[in-house]
Amino acid sequence: MKIDETRDKILDVAATIFSKFGFHKTTVDEIARAAHKAKGSVYYHFKNKEELFQGVIDKEFQMLRGELIKAIDSGNNAKEKLANYITVRMKTLNKLTNFYDALKNDYLTYLGFIEQIRQRYDNEETILIKSILTGGVNNNEFEINNVELTAPAILTALKGLEIPFFIEDKYNEMETRLNELIAILIRGIEKH
Questions:
Q1: What global pTM score does this model have?
Q2: pLDDT of 113-124, one tens digit each?
Q3: Within a domain: residue 144?
Q4: In this structure, is residue 172 part of a structural domain?
């Protein structure tokens, strides 16, 4: 097996185990056994459990980012792009257990990289939302006084929905709430 394939296999197995048992209860020994690799092979690719967890989070983040970009690109206009973005974001976050865990759990903040991941993720999401909004303003679809303030406001609204959807396990209500939020957002920024 090639080095990159071994690293990816270790990350995939680690993602499964971290999502099942959490960061604190997972050991590198368990990951190595489940991946059918020597513990030394895991340490060849990752210097410790924190770096391995960071690798899992980064991989999930890249997956989420890719899905969001596809969602934006599939829209024919800014309204569709924004609606697609919001829907895909929430559905994909629900599937990315480790990434979402890192975003919501304060007990992981002692890992210095978690706050960096949170900040990087927020910054990237804000940039994506700003690009949608700017496109909408430029195409005369949206009337927004300050895109720099509106983009983080939309992100904050989306984060507010995460708790009922994922923590309170009301994911089955998501579609209805999302559609309502999308309608309200678009009506609020739509050019009349």
A1: 0.82
A2: 777 777 888 899
A3: yes
A4: yes
